[in-house]
Design goal:
Layout lengths: L1 E7 L9 H13 L5 E5 L7 H10 L4 E6 L6 H17 L4 E4 L7 H14 L1
Parallel strand pairs: 1-2, 1-3, 3-4
Length: about 120
């Protein structure tokens, strides 16, 4: 089974995760046959490891991780690859792949431009 993890940075303020919760709910509403989990780099739960474990327990064997980051900064270049390799070692029966940061996608950038244009 295929599944997706929406991976964010995390923050001390619990309200910060509200858009991530909405994003996960939108995913599940639009793709009900593909499980989704949220995961966070730090300060929030679940961790990437915990999200992979949850999906693995549900029978997922092919998981795509989408970094919901605006750009490829130090966390995605340095910390994320280490976490990903740790998960690959811990869950050898799960194929784990990652996309680039959502901010690298032209459609995402265009959505932000459109948002700004609507605000004019």
């Amino acid at each position: 089974m295929k599944a997706i993890i929406l991976f964010g940075h995390g923050a001390r303020d619990q309200r910060w995760r509200e858009p991530f919760d909405r994003l996960g709910a939108l995913w599940q509403e639009q793709y009900p046959d593909t499980p989704v989990e949220l995961a966070f780099l730090e300060m929030m739960q679940p961790s990437l490891d915990q999200a992979v474990a949850t999906l693995n327990a549900k029978g997922a064997s092919d998981v795509t991780i989408v970094p919901v980051f605006f750009g490829q900064g130090g966390h995605l270049r340095n910390d994320f690859p280490v976490l990903l390799e740790e998960c690959r070692a811990k869950f050898p029966g799960v194929q784990l792949r990652a996309t680039s940061a959502v901010g690298d996608d032209l459609a995402v950038l265009q959505a932000i431009v459109d948002f700004g244009a609507r605000a004019l």
